[in-house]
Amino acid sequence: FEAMAIDRSLFKQFLVQVEMTYLDNPYHNSMHGGDVCQASAHFLTAIRQAFPCRSAFPLGFTSLEVCALLLAGLVHDIGHPGTN
Hints:
Blueprint: H1 8-21, H2 30-50, H3 63-75
């Protein structure tokens, strides 16, 4: 949070809004968004362990790019009608 100058309280409010914005359907819901976010974080960790580097993030990603990847996973199905 400090590296990206993200206010924790504001981010918590954002997360509450994300959860409330997801539609209530069996799969493409807020739990799925959280799962994709967590899986993305896991893959980043696994890549970093498999291919050690001096950078804080794997593949030369910046902190902004990692943040964007994790947020994209979190919100990628907002508004999905759940029909497929």
